[in-house]
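WP5 quarterly update. Target: ABC transporter ATP-binding protein. Source organism: Roseicyclus marinus. Length: 254 aa.
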Amino acid sequence: MSDPVLEVRGLTKRFGALVVSDAIDLTLRPGEIHAVIGPNGAGKSTLIAQICGGLAPDAGEIRLNGRDVTALPTRARARMGLARTFQISALAMEDTVLQNAMLGALGAAGNPWRFLAPVLSDRGLRKTAEGALDRMGLSDKAGHRTAELSHGERRQLEVAVALTLTPRAFVMDEPMAGLGAEGGARMTALLDRLRHEAPILLVEHDMDAVFALADRISVLAGGRVIASGPPDAIRADAAVREAYLGDADPGDGA
Ligand SMILES: Nc1ncnc2c1ncn2[C@@H]1O[C@H](COP(=O)(O)OP(=O)(O)OP(=O)(O)O)[C@@H](O)[C@H]1O
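Structure tokens (predicted):
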């Protein structure tokens, strides 16, 4: 089996007496979508924050392409190819879709934006941005103001911005949130293709999307991974059904 792109070992985080990450082990392998699901308060957001560098774990290790990044800041992890998506506020609403794709990539790569004009006429960067927009189904919107995009299209643009960085791994926090049936179906199809560019760690409440997309699913409950495996095994897992009692039923489209 190929080496994991992202590897989490023994990750532990406490808030006072509350253990929100309890010795979590997780891997993300090339070409896969690995979904992390769990009831509200299970510790999904806290896990993502530690993986991306916004929150320091109390114990454990995070490796990116074999390198220990546990002590590195968010920006350094991003430069190494860890792409977190859906920080919607990062988009400049008055700029065009293409400008966002170009400038977003530049900003996330840690470059200052002060030489704005030369950047916007940089042909290499423009080509990269256009390629990313194309892959996210936004070519025909390139010249539009970002404010004119629908909610779903803005989410597609966030992924396009991440794509311009040539990511090695995506971490996606609820990419389906707020999308209707049509937008959700479009995003599902796009993510399905995207996994071949970089594997995706997908935290998502939309069980239809999770079970349609995931190669593997890990279930968090009370900060612990209570089950991990292919969708069929997770659907049949008694501990998972127990954890979801009174919450969304995994795999039943709730
Ligand atoms: N900064 C904090 N200080 C104290 N407790 C916190 C802090 N952040 C999160 N928690 C607690 O940690 C637990 C896990 O929260 P987290 O947001 O990671 O769960 P989640 O699985 O993402 O939930 P949801 O699906 O509702 O977003 C919760 O009980 C939450 O109240």
